[in-house]
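Exercise: predict the fold of this chain.
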Amino acid sequence: MWRASLAAFVAVAFPSPAPAALHVAPAGSSTGSCVRAAPCTVARADALAGPGTTVVMVDGQYGSATLNASGTGAARVRWVSAAKWGAHFESIQVNGHFVDVEGFDVGDSSARILLDINGNFSRAMGNRVHDQQVRCGGDGAAGIAADGWRNGGYNGHHQEIIGNLVEDIGIGPRDVPCSLVHGIYTAVPYVTVANNIVRRAIGVGIHAWHAAAYNTWVNNTVVDSGSHGLMVGNGDTGASAGRGFYVANNVAVGNRYYAIAECCDSSVIGPNTYVDNLGWANGYARVVQSTRSRGTETGSLNADPLFVGYAAGDYRLRAGSPAIDSGSATDAPSTDYAGTARPQGTGVDRGAYESAMQPVPPDRRALDNPPADEIPESSGALPPIAPTNAGGAGGVSESALQPPVLTIASDGP
C-alpha cells in the first residue's frame, strides 16, 4: 500500500512531460500515441499535447476542430500544417492559451467564424482563410476573430493575427452596406493584427468592436471590402472605451467607404493614433474618416500604391511606389508577409509587403502570372483573382457622396 501511495503521489506531483512532437493525419487513430509512423486524429493529439508540443498535420480534409490544449509563455503549443495550406479545416476554434495555429487552409464552409481565437496569448499565423458561405445578417460572422470569449464574456486578451491571407468572406453583393460579416474581427484588448492581406470581405476588412482596446494594427493590406477598409469601434456586449489603438503603415485600396474609420456616433471612442496609412480608390479620398477624443492622425497619404499586379492579386510594390520607405518604424514587424526582413531601404514600407529593392521586369504578363516553379512555398505569392471594380482613380471627394449609414447589430461576431 505504501508503494502504491508513493507511486500515486509521484504521478500527481511530477506529471509526465508533454510529447515534443505529435503527428496527425485525416484517417489517424483516436487512441494511438501520434508518432510519425502511426499518426492520430486531431482530438487525440489535442488530448496529448501540452507545453512545448508541436503537432504536425499532413495534407488532407479535417472538418472542424476545437483546440483546448495550452502551452506556456516559454513553451507554446504549435499546430502546424506540414505543407503550407495543405491541411484543410472547415473551421478552427482555439480555446487553449499560448497556442500557435500556423499555415492551414481554413474555409469553404458556412461556419460563423472560420478561425476563432479565444485563448490568451494565442496566435494565428500564415493561414489562408477563405470562402465563408455566410450572408449578411443573423449574429454576424468573420474570417478570423480575436474573440476572447471566456467565462460568459469578452474576457480574453493578448492575441495575435499575423501574416494571414483572408479572402472572400461572406456571400452577397459588396455594393450595399453590410456591418455584420468582416475579414478580421477583434473583440478584446491587446490584439496585434499585422502583415495580413484581406480582400473581398462583404463588410469591413479589419473591424474592432465589443471590448476591443489597445490594439496594434500595422502593415496590413486591405482591398475591395464592401464597407470600410479598417474600422475602430466599440459597442454592445462588453463594450469598453475603444481607446489606445495604434493603426499604422496600412494600405487600403478599393474599399466602398473610407480607408479607415472610427465608428459609431453612439460609441465612446479614443483617443487613438493613426500613423502613415495609405488609401487609394476608396469611396472617400480622405484616408481616416475622423479622430475622436483628441486622437491623432499623421502621415496619411491618398496615392496609388503601385501594386505589381492589382487585378491579379499581387500586392507587392513596384519601384516608385509612395509606400516604399515611407512608413513608421514604431511597432512595425521585423519581417513582411512573405518573410522579407524590414526595412529593405531607408525606411519601413507601408502595407503587407516590403520591397526587396529589385527592378521590376518589363514583361507585365510574367509579373502578374509568374511560373509556378518560380514561386517558393514561403514567398506568399497569391493565386490570381478576377478583376474587380475598385472605383475611380483616386476615390471621390467627401462632398460628392452622402455619408454612408451603417447599422452595427448587437452582438456581432
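Check your answer against the key: DSSP finds three helices and 33 strands in the chain.
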